[in-house]
Amino acid sequence: MEGRKNTEAEILRAAKKVFIQHGYAGARMQAIADEAKINKAMLHYYYRSKDALFEKIMDGAVDLMSRQFISALSGDKPVMEKVEAMVSNYTDTIIKNPYIPIFILNELARSQMNFQNRLLQKLEQDNLFMNFLAQIVQEQQSGILRPIPVPQFMITIMSLIVFPHIAKPVFLKIFKMADKEYMHMMEERKEYIMDFLRKSVML
């Protein structure tokens, strides 16, 4: 049983690397088998198709990100405390799992409705997301937050968190930075994001 778990974990690690390097369309099962140091027959024993392998990784990514979202939005904290938890949780998760933004982009390009349905299903649990949106409006009406349209509010937050990770290869070249240095900058960026948001959205 332990050997099976180790083999499957190695397949998933290899698949993440190959999908990131070549995208969904360019990834080949043989390349994944080679990266995992197993033969193709063994790979097909665990995952019969590239679709099945991609779906497994994507399910894990959506579940991981939605759990961070739910954790950040739970409780009776003010909006900006929840936003700070969201920024921290998402940044830490992406730093530890750098494949996630690329996988989400690939899935949006490959099967937009499939990804949307998965994400909405997770976010609709316990109405946490809708309650959070209502809380934003309430704090705007109470004079705590600026009256920014809620979609703009959320898109700004998510863009500030996610875009630097999606564009990481470009920024590494532009700023001539090593990967480790860039990841350290992403860790520091949590404070910059919150400082920017407080000045931008709070009255």
TrEMBL record:
Keywords: DNA-binding, Membrane, Transmembrane, Transmembrane helix
TM region positions: 153-175
This protein's record includes keyword Hydrolase: no
PROSITE patterns xref list: HTH_TETR_2
GO MF, one annotated term: DNA binding
Domain named HTH tetR-type: residues: 5-65
Pfam family, one: TetR_N
Statement: the UniProt record of this protein carries the keyword DNA-binding: yes
DNA-binding region range list: 28-47
SUPFAM superfamilies found in the cross-reference section: Homeodomain-like (SSF46689), Tetracyclin repressor-like, C-terminal domain (SSF48498)
PANTHER family linked to this entry: HTH-TYPE TRANSCRIPTIONAL REPRESSOR SCO4008, TRANSCRIPTIONAL REPRESSOR
Protein name: AcrR family transcriptional regulator
Species annotation: Flagellimonas meridianipacifica
